Amino acid sequence: MAVPFIDLQRFEEGFLDRWMEKCHEITRNTRFISGPEGTKLEGWLRDESGVAEVVGCANGTDAIQLALRAAGVGAGDLVLIPDATFWATFEAVVNVGARPVTVDIDLEDLQMDFELFRKAYSQYKPKAAILVNLYGWGSRKLDDYRAFARENKLPLIEDSAQAYGVTWKGASIYRDAWMSTVSFYPAKVLGSCGDAGAVYCSSKEQADTVRKLSNHGRTSHYGYGLIGWNSRMGGFDAAFLNLSHEYTEERIASRRRSAEWYRRELAALDIRTVAPPTGYVENGYLNVTLHDPAVRPQIEAVLKEHGIGFGNVYPGSMSTQPGAEGFIAGRVGGENADWLGRAVLNLPLFAYMKDSELDEVMSVLKKALAAR
Ligand SMILES: *Cc1c(COP(=O)(O)O)cnc(C)c1O
Q: Which end of the chain has fewer CB atoms at under 10 Å, N or C?
């Protein structure tokens, strides 16, 4: 039996019918840009996270760019980012005219290394930093990062594109961030029917700036106070997210169950499955296993042969990408992010995986290990 890496088509009973009805209503009313659905979405995102305000936008990459611009980051500024993340984090910094400095990761939690971050801060005196909460959890030093940023008046943006539904010490990971972002790309934990994203803001002022930037810097319909761009969310996206919200608890619970199941079963095979640090409840976004880079290709070959989907999130560090050349302003730390790229293997994980699928993944994995 083949098992896909991800299957987005496991809609709940009744979901598709309700969605079709919604599509009809939006089309009839021509509410194609955000509108009441957008306001509703921003309302519950704010209420369930406990932040001051949330602003919807066109995608998760724009969300980071909006946050950077609202933080006053621009031409020539330096921004610290982890060396292991999705390329959008790097790109966002460059797209606002700034230059990234990459910081290596902590192999304990696979997030930016706090000691190296502090070192990078004193070495580069950056204008801002982006902490990425990767894999469905975040840094074990999250409180230290936030305290350090506060003490040093360093704008700390959290790229929480993958962190929807993650809790830290009992509260939403978004709650105590200075500013953080999310992506609603369809394959994320809360996925839209297209591209969408949002910025979580800790003050009304932040949110006002983000909102203006995302709508051509508008202060009135034909009055422009800032140079922004068009990063508005579509009406269909907002409506799809509002409908999906009714099912997210169940979806995340299912993901968590599978994530924990893997961790238990894989431990018995002596495969290291990375676990969220104490204090986190993960959202089950990804399974993360680590292998000897010399052996990983053999395991992958067996998975492929048996139709088991897998991922390598992410196969290379940011600082070594060809596109980084000419833009990267520095690189702090060692080779952990590069090693991760060669060691990481992600097994299928999505909402409503069947027990039979999990069993199949495990039985193929056993074959792969025996063939090593
Ligand atoms: C998905 C993702 C993004 C970008 O989001 P888009 O909606 O695809 O633009 C940024 N950062 C991280 C860590 C992501 O996983």
A: C
pLDDT along the chain (372 residues), means of 10: 97 98 97 95 98 98 98 98 98 98 98 98 98 98 98 98 98 98 98 98 98 96 96 98 98 98 95 97 98 97 98 97 98 97 98 98 95 78
pLDDT for residue 372: 77
Residues written for the chain:
372
65 touches ligand 1 (CB under 6 Å): no
At residue 313, the pLDDT reads 97
User: Ligand 1 atom 14: the closest Cα is on which residue?
Assistant: 161
| Rounded Cα gap, residues 50 and 174, in angstroms | 8
Q: How far is CA 166 from CA 12, 160, 172, 283, 284, in A?
A: 22, 9, 6, 5, 9
195 CA from centroid of ligand 1 (Å): 10
Is the model's pTM score more than 0.85?
yes
What's the CA-to-centroid distance between 159 and ligand 1, angstroms? 8
Q: Phi and psi of 199, rounded to 5°? A: -115, 125
Structure tokens at 183: 């992506």
Query: Domains in the chain and their CATH numbers?
Result: 15-245 (3.40.640.10), 248-370 (3.90.1150.10)
Model pLDDT, residue 111: 98
Distance from residue 163's CA to the centre of ligand 1 (Å): 11
> Are 113 and 64 spatial neighbours (Cβ–Cβ below 8 Å)?
no
Q: Please give the single-letter amino acid code of residue 201.
A: C
Instruction: Dump the DSSP string for 100-167.
Output: EEEE-B-TTTSSB-HHHHHHHHHHH--SEEEEE--BTB--TTHHHHHHHHHHTT--EEEE-TT-TT-E
Say yes or no: CB of residue 161 within 6 Å of ligand 1.
yes
Helix, strand, or coil here: 192?
coil
